[in-house]
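I'll show one example:
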Amino acid sequence: MLQRVLNKRIPLLKFFLKQQLLYVPVIGLAWWALDFPFMKRYSKAQLRRNPALGRKDQDTARRACEKFRLVPTSVMVFAEGTRFSAARRQAQSSPYRHLLKPRAGALATTLNAMGTQFRSMIDATIIYPDGVPSFWHLASGRAGRIVVRIRQIPIPDDFCGADYATDKAFRSAFHHWLADQWQAKDQEIDAFMAAQRPTPGGRD
């Protein structure tokens, strides 16, 4: 959806993918050929046993960002890390009605590695008023209405120089900043969905 909406408006979108997606037939090979960065995911238990694992994804992100310096590129980060579901929201005790908690690491690492190369940050919110479609619904043209809200955000200067992995003060500030963005996004979705509901006694 984002590739379609933003096509020819910004450079080619590249995004961080889970390592398992490399093995998706056809598409995985295409992502590999386009040099999309593949990231491994580790559980909290694995990271507690071996904190060095947490640096691997950051190193992968940095290497990818170094390549992105050579050609016009738009780097896309899905901060939630996985698809939204009511069960996942409940499992992580998300404070948001329509969103999961954002993960700051990949976004912070990208900004740290390439922030001075970016013109700005683009925040995209996708809303499915008729319910979240399946892949088959999308492929067969039966996805229902899809609303995409896009806004341009200036990149704070201090986000481009601090090290997320080692600077605790920056890490805390970045988490607070991202939480504020997510709160605004959640309120935007809530307001849109509320406007879609029929008023009592009215007609659809």
Remarks:
- The radius of gyration is 18 Å.
- The chain has a mean pLDDT of 83.
- Residues 18 and 41 are 7 Å apart (CA to CA).
- The longest helix spans residues 168-196.
